[in-house]
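Technical annex B. To support the medicinal chemistry partners, we prepared a structural model of the target in complex with MGD, based solely on the information shown next.
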Amino acid sequence: MTAIRTTCPYCGVGCGLLATPDGKGGLTVKGDTAHPANLGRLCSKGTALAETVGLEGRILTPQIGGQPATWESALELVAARFSQAIAQHGPDSVAFYLSGQMLTEDYYVANKLMKGFIGSANIDTNSRLCMASSVAGHRRAFGSDTVPGTYEDFDNADLVVLVGSNLAWCHPVLYQRLAAAKKARGTRVVVVDPRRTATCDLADLHLPIAPGSDAALFNAALVALADRGAVDARFVADHVTGFDAALAGARASDPALTGLPAPDLETFLDWFTTTEKTVTVYSQGINQSSSGTDKVNAILNCHLASGRIGRPGMGPFSVTGQPNAMGGREVGGLANMLACHLDIESPAHRAAVQGFWASPAMADKPGLKAVDLFRAAGSSQIKALWIIHTNPAVSMPDADRVAQAIRDCDFVVVSDITRTDTTRLADVVLPATAWAEKSGTVTNSDRIISRQRKVLPAPGQARDDWRMIADVATRMGWGEAFDWPDAGAIFAEYAALSGVAGALGRDFDISGLQHADYDALPPTRWPVSTTRQGGRFFGDGQFYTPDARARMLPITPRLPEARTGKRYPFRLNTGRIRDQWHTMTRTALSPRLSQHIAEPFVEVHPQDASELGLAPATLARVTSPEGSAILRVSITDAVQRGQVFAPMHWTGETAASGRIDALIAGVTDPVSGQPESKAAVAALQPFGAAWYGFAVSANAPALLQADYWATARHAAGHRTELAGLEAPADWEAYARALFGLPGAECLSVLDARRGGARLAFMAGGRVLAALFVAAEPVQLARGHVAAQIGADNPGLLAGRPGAGQADPGPTVCACLNVGLHTITAAIAAQRLTSVEAIGAALQAGTSCGSCKPELAALLARMPRLEAAE
Ligand SMILES: Nc1nc2c(c(=O)[nH]1)N[C@H]1C(S)=C(S)[C@@H](COP(=O)(O)OP(=O)(O)OC[C@H]3O[C@@H](n4cnc5c(=O)[nH]c(N)nc54)[C@H](O)[C@@H]3O)O[C@H]1N2
Ligand SMILES: Nc1nc2c(c(=O)[nH]1)N[C@H]1C(S)=C(S)[C@@H](COP(=O)(O)OP(=O)(O)OC[C@H]3O[C@@H](n4cnc5c(=O)[nH]c(N)nc54)[C@H](O)[C@@H]3O)O[C@H]1N2
Ligand code: SF4
Ligand SMILES: [Mo]
């Protein structure tokens, strides 16, 4: 079997892969050394891709009302319901909600159907929750949504400022690239984040900024640039407008809003004003804010004032989250954009696109943005909604209300690959081909267009996303305009349209790419036209505004909209963990990726925890005005007092009550419409569990009856955490129902007085399942216990390894499967003193390197551990 060059389906780094089918329906992957984004490196998620391509849980046939249906009947129904709504209530009574994970070709087809044929711009995407503030900030400053720099700038910078970015966990290969640059040239790294994250491992300076106050920091930086002679007067005079007003605005703002100690602020200002080669990288800590667009422009102001843009080793750099977040923006997936960075507000641009498409009805005003779109769906303003490649019942703010809106909407279609919290609410579910089963293109953070290629056959009746959209368009009467033989033909049409945009003076022009190039297309940075090839933007001072000058804007910092107070004293911050992807529909299939963190949690500062009476590893009920969740308490001074952090990943499929977006208010930035996912308010209280349980089983739990549960994959099956407010009367009966094992042999040790129980279920001398119950959080060697499933092990109920058996402990290095206890034991026994030494001894951290910050943290903790003993 030959290896096929393709691209990772996860983050916006856009790593190239070599995927080789194994002939048994699976594949193996390794990093593509020829891809400029990763040069062969992969992170833990990319490395584990082979564990996520199985057919477990896949939707393989269309469903209408939860029942299997034929494609023909499903497509007819979708086309009829959309056509009916449009005929009775007009084009704005229907909507699409898409995703930055769709391929460019899928996106192009959906956008063409909605904006050019249905004639509405009610098409928005989860990029509204992700990149919208960056898009809006770019457009205000540059006149176009252009990321000026490239990844090479990470290699060439002397100062990299990471603002609201946990690069170590969210863009791990880029983080490793930065780590290598730091080693090679001593690049200084500053991390601006209210939390101390894994990324701080690389930081020369961590600024634990007050939530939402970043604009005050960059206003202070602008003032410092001006007062310390670091303004590029020539660049400003020739290429920028608005400098004076922006500086006056910055002078009026108070740096104290940042809450930062004066010496740290001074160090930052000193470095920022004296280092020419400075890259400012920003991500969701900037974008997901009710003042996100202003924060973006506060950063852009600094780079424009100092002329540090579009030259090697410098520039503002908005890193994208999803694999095709950038491509979706290029193709005009957002409700306020047209294809190829053309503007929906511009009659000339609309006419050009309509002419190219020869389309009957062109949208002439922006459509509903995500938060408003779901409100409209819930209030029956939207009669038919198609959700593709995203899981809004989990990932949208105010998620309980969004789920209710989906339930209430007259007609909802969901295209997905697997059962999710959102498909459960749909009228029609359409089975999509997944990564590795389809072909197309994606654009990464530094404007490189890469091919995803088909490696595996489409399973069951699954169909490519673009094809189902075209199939519906055809049934709505527009067959001719939606008649492509393959994805390459769509790409060719799109590239031709971009030539029209290029002729109108827009940045996005890939008209140099032809259909014939498609199959073998190597990673290619846009633009690709007769006049321009790749490279950086704006080094020449030419911007995409009418007068070609960039705009600096006066920014008045605004703190998060919702205020903490007596009822909700905590600021709730949310985000990602290293080894899970969003709503976990794919990464949770990997046992390896599920071991790093196996449960939803809330990080609480030690003093807050003690005041609230929250003990380590107990559970907390976290509530906001919008909703509530039950989460495992993780006590750490990585968060500041008064702030808590919880991950966004857990769903109704993986936990009883872990959907954190149920707590987030639908508050948005007035310019970008992006929700404030990082700054909700919350109250915490002990959950007060009467019992805690830990279960392992070969099969997925059959009946999850518990006030709290969270379930995850393990190499030998499933592991489930449980807790309840009231203990069941009969643990054996409870466990039999839990595991669906009415007749299996049961070994049990019950300790009624202390509320404990240990039960193992056996067949043929082998362990099928086991449940451990205690009145306190269950303490046992979880990895060891889970590994006994399928084994012949009567000693299992001891809960820890017997003599001569080692317990590796929780996984730290997911790539090479090295556990915490193995690492701490080796550090002690072999007197290891560096991350490299751990790598040499155990290989931990030597593959993707994502766990290096954790290894460093372990090393830092070890001497103290020894001293305590
Ligand atoms: N492992 C993993 N990687 C991913 C993803 C994933 O699901 N899992 N998703 C991908 C996607 S789509 C995206 S968008 C990216 C997101 O990548 P990131 O933006 O790096 O990730 P987040 O964890 O959402 O948030 C980043 C940080 O913002 C901080 N923050 C919160 N409030 C503020 C604030 O007011 N100011 C500042 N300066 N910082 C603040 C948070 O503490 C957090 O550490 O990751 C991509 N990569
Ligand atoms: N509180 C909070 N909420 C957040 C964030 C946060 O930081 N905090 N981050 C926000 C951000 S930045 C983002 S990007 C969103 C992400 O949120 P979502 O987009 O909702 O998350 P995913 O789990 O990536 O959803 C992708 C869905 O597509 C399905 N799928 C996979 N492959 C295919 C395919 O080929 N075709 C089709 N049709 N379906 C497929 C998957 O099974 C899954 O259900 O979450 C946002 N929500
Ligand atoms: S850094 Fe990891 S998740 Fe992101 S593209 Fe590369 S391998 Fe995939
Ligand atoms: Mo995102």
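Notes passed to the chemistry partners:
The pocket of MGD (ligand 1) is lined by residues 11, 130, 163-166, 169-170, 192-195, 197, 209, 211-212, 214, 283-285, 321-322, 573, 575-576, 578, 580-582, 678 (CB under 6 Å).
Confidence is low (pLDDT under 50) at residues 864-869.
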